[in-house]
Amino acid sequence: MTVKTLILAAGQGTRMRSAMPKVLHKVANRSLLQHVYDTSQSIDNNEVIIIYGHGGEQVKQALAALDAQWIEQKQQLGTGHAVLQADSLLNNDDTVLILYGDVPLLSKESITGLLQHVSAHSMALLTVNLDDPSGYGRIVRDSAGNVIRIVEHKDATDQEHQIKEVNTGILAAKGDKLKAWIAQLDNSNAQQEFYLTDVIEMAVNEGIEVKTSQPECPDEVMGVNNRKQLSYLERVYQNLQADKLMAAGVTLLDPARVDCRGGFDALGQDISVDINVIFEGNNSIGNNVKIGANTLINNSIIADDVEILANCIIDNASIGAGSRIGPFARLRPQAELAEQVHIGNFVEIKKATVAQGSKINHLSYIGDASIGSKVNIGAGTITCNYDGVNKFRTVIEDGAFIGSDTQLIAPVTVGKNATIGAGATITKDAPASQLTLSRAKQLSIKNWQRPVKKES
Ligand code: UD1
Ligand code: CA
User: Fold this and answer.
1) Is-catalytic flag, 25?
2) Which of 438, 410, 443, 412 is nearest to 424 (CA)?
3) Region 47-52: what's the mean pLDDT?
């Protein structure tokens, strides 16, 4: 059995007041449409069809990597009309699932629960009970409690307006049935649209039972029509991520002030996360890691017992066990730190390896470099890796000591256990185990007098 998942995404989204199509707006740094697509990937034998319209080219371009068929709905004449556009791609024995590109948080559990209701004799409809159902299609049931039809808010009587059970729009049915029903839709209603919801009454008239289920949480079926709803769903999503982190054994000092805009390849025990920490991309974090306030961690690997102090940026970097980073440190892509490394305040590391036990504690730039083990790099050390055109590497071997305020003009190598005196400008390789200095000799001038102001 193949499941054909139709994602309706042709709506304009006027209320976003955006130059960008609505479904490209993001929750947790992933577009709304990508969320729906990703969730659909949990379904076995699933093929995705996306119905696009407004800003279609932009949507297709942004999401070109999706394994999906794209069908254009040139005019948006209603949800039933949208489904009709995919008619030729639907086979009789498919199970057809209808999802929406602007409803990002539907869970896979809700989808699998729904699909279980689909058979030759039944179709499935996801409903939800709302305290304020206004605007939504209402689920009309008979006295025995069976669904008999859906009535849209604009077509409903005062009595029907009292119904709190509403249509989420999400439904599933066998292909042969759905194809026959959508062929019969008309637009004789208040909005002169081809309503997908009219298939419910057709099903009932044919003796097909409409089985309903509800999502665990109503927020799963909330759509995005404006930026306020977008921000609401961002918070809902972030609360879920915080719950997952805590369930996995992470201490969050304030679960309302952590943001996960990606996932974790690994998550150790007893990680502690202070406030305003942002996780992006895929991170891997070991046991007993402490992360200080106001820190951004993107696509990085952090081993056991690492301490990251406040206000750091860790971007595509890896940090070995027992290292201490920050406060105010910036690890840029390909910063690879071994165990027990110390990186202090206002230190930037880029495309550099730092071996075990080395310390770069204050105000330094280390780029395009290999730093050995047990190296001590003094405050204000700069690897001058760029001549304006090309980049060159600096090599500092094990046990070297680099005095403060040193510039290393790459390409250059500092040998094992070498010492560089403070204030040096190193343009040639510094030999192992020797002291290398490059500074003018200090001299003092006796009897020197400060100039005095001339009388006018
Ligand atoms: C629809 C349902 C309503 C339900 C509500 C839930 C119908 C007739 N009504 O109403 O019962 O309570 O959703 O939110 O189905 N779309 C297209 N092409 C179109 C029209 C819509 O792709 O021609 C897409 C939109 O982009 C949107 C979705 O379908 O994502 C829903 O369309 P919308 O017009 O918002 O439907 P509602 O009037 O809210
Ligand atoms: Ca809507």
Assistant:
1) no
2) 438
3) 98
Q: Write out the two tokens for 69.
A: 């068929």
Rg of the chain on CA atoms, in Å? 31
Which pLDDT score, from 0 to 100, does residue 55 have?
Answer: 84
**What is the Å distance from ligand 1's center to 349 Cα?**
50
Q: Among 103, 420, 422, 375, which residue's Cα sits nearest to residue 237?
A: 103
Residue 456 pLDDT > 90 = no
Q: Please, which contacts does 183-186 make with residues 24 or more away whose CB atoms are closer than 8 Å?
A: 183/84, 183/87, 185/78, 185/80, 185/81, 185/84
CB neighbours of residue 326 within 10 Å: 24
- The domains located in the chain, with CATH, are 3-221 (3.90.550.10), 227-436 (2.160.10.10)
Instruction: Quote the pLDDT of residue 314.
Output: 98
Buried-exposed string 82-109: b where 16+ CB fall within 10 A, e elsewhere: bbbbbeeebeeebbbbbbbbbbbbbbee
Ligand 1 pocket test: which of 79, 84, 196 has the largest number of ligand atoms within 8 Å of its C-beta?
79
Query: CB count, 10 Å around CB of 150?
Result: 26
The two three-digit tokens of residue 246, written as one number: 């805590």
The tokens for 274 are 């202070």
Dist CA 424 CA 444 (whole Å): 20
Q: What percent of the chain has pLDDT over 70?
A: 100
Q: Which letter does DSSP use for residue 430 in this model?
A: B
pLDDT at 10 over 90: yes
**Average pLDDT of the chain?**
97
pLDDT of 392 strictly over 90: yes
Whether the per-residue pLDDT at 166 is higher than 90: the answer is yes
- Mean of pLDDT values over 189-212: 97
Give the mean pLDDT of 3-23: 94
Per-residue pLDDT reduced to its tens digit, 126-145: 999 999 999 999 999 999 99
Calculate the alpha carbon distances from 202 to 107, 119, 312, 415 in Å.
28, 16, 60, 83
Q: In this structure, what are the phi and psi dihedrals at residue 403, rounded to the nearest 5 degrees?
A: -65, 160
Q: Which of 352, 360, 350 is nearest to 380 (CA)?
A: 360
pLDDT of 85: 98
**Which H/E stretch holds residue 101?**
none
Q: Please tell me the total number of residues recorded for the chain in this structure.
A: 456
pTM exceeding the 0.90 threshold for the entire prediction: yes
Pocket lined around ligand 1, Cβ cut-off 6 Å: 8-11, 51, 73, 76-79, 81-82, 100-102, 136-137, 150, 152, 166-169, 195-197, 223
- The kind and range of the H/E element at 336 are strand 335-337
197 close to 171: Cβ distance less than 8 angstroms: no
Q: What is the pLDDT of residue 158?
A: 97
